[in-house]
Amino acid sequence: VTIARPAEPDLASLYASQRAPMTRLAHAITGSNALAEEVVQDAFLRLSTARDVREPVPYLRTIVVNLSRTAMRRGSRTVALPHDPVALDPPELDELWQHVRRLPEKYRTALALRFYADLSEAQMAEAMGCRPGTVKSLVSRGLDMLRKELG
Amino acid sequence: MSIDLEDRLREMYVAVADQTLLDDPVMEPVELVEPVEPVDDAPHAPRRTRRVVALVGVAAVVIAALVVLATRERGATPADQLKDRPYAIPTWMPSGYGYVDGAIQSDATGSLITYERAPSEQILIATQGDLQPTTGQEQVPLNGGVEAQVSHEPDSGRWVVGFRQRGGPAVTIRADGVTRDEVIEIANGVWYVNRALWDRVTGKGGFQSGHLDAWTPPGDTDAKITVDGSAQTWLRRGVEGFSWSRGGPACRGEWLARGPGDNRLLLVSLTPIDAFEVTVSDGRVLHVDAASPPGFPSERYAAIEVDGAGPGPFSDTLATKCIGGAP
Prior knowledge:
The complex is a heterodimer.
Chain A: E1 3-4, H1 11-30, H2 33-49, H3 56-77, H4 91-101, H5 105-116, H6 121-128, H7 132-150
Chain B: H1 2-18, H2 47-65, E1 87-90, E2 98-104, E3 110-118, E4 121-128, E5 138-141, E6 147-153, E7 158-164, E8 170-175, H3 180-188, E9 190-193, H4 195-202, E10 210-215, E11 225-230, E12 234-239, E13 242-244, E14 252-255, E15 264-269, E16 275-279, E17 285-289, E18 300-305, E19 319-323
Antiparallel strand pairs in B: 1-9, 2-3, 3-4, 4-8, 5-6, 6-7, 7-8, 10-11, 11-12, 12-13, 14-15, 15-18, 16-17, 16-19
């Protein structure tokens, strides 16, 4: 017999509050709006089956980052990622966006977490599953690569 | 130079975020189409493609494997109990399966709901009232007294279960990656819903949760049997803090006392009995008719006032018995 007081996580409110920011983060990382929506849907699916999640937002963000990186790696091995035809204003931002989307996924991820999500190095390291020194190096190297591309 | 680039990156990401579109996750009606290749032939296809293939696949399964609809009634399910509830939603899923999407046919006569644990592990539940039945390998009685036709493909491990509750739609379940007991449990936990409930449960990516339905059981109390939860986290039947799901009570009483003078007793049977019989402390025997909530034709409930309430299961203090129907 299964009869118990319910102890259901409040996924509905988490979905309502985090779906948009997580989709924007995934868009910033992957460069694709459509892919970002897929990633976030998958992330919530995984969160819904997770146990003992005490800090759901950082946990969700880590899943989104991991799934975004996996999606980008999978895309690079098969066909071109489905970049959405998004053009940014002013044109110099659009040029920068095109260069960012051509960076290797680990640099794109680090730049998005640093300059979009505004995470600390410790938070970035948690989300990317590496050491703080590594994320610092990734950001620095990513900026160098962009400067080189921008001339 | 570096600061300038960092500022430009921040500005760029704000612009990207501003252009991020969020589709309404409520699914548009989808029409079931002709059967083609099964889902497993495209395990690495994009999710949207997999959904279409899954939809088509389940249509094939429905056509190829839908059920001899034996409706051997044991209980007192009203014939029209499901008349206005043509769609089926599972209330329980094995561990790890998450809701993917739900769709109603364009002519609103059938539904398909999909759960997934991995690209090759999907569970699909479809209703389709006008297809010709076929025969399963095994007949398995469900809680509601109907017999399900159960087929198993040893090579793929896939289970296909078909059944129809009296007055309800034909239901077909196709499940990969589960055991026989689990797929029967899914069948026993089907909740029949109308369009409004379907849209609510399947909306918001399956995370639309909360109080979905309520019903007052026979008896002299104000207790309400409710359906709570979400497609992503199970749907539970419950009353005032108690809930039950998989393997729930076959015949049970539970005090609902919330304070002094509250002597309400809930009586539950997840099989279709006719009545409850309660023997109180002075030896009197109370007979209470049982009834089904909308959408759960095989379950029976009642709620009555009985002196001597106290916390804990009813069987600890009084005796209860389920009368008629399946044991």
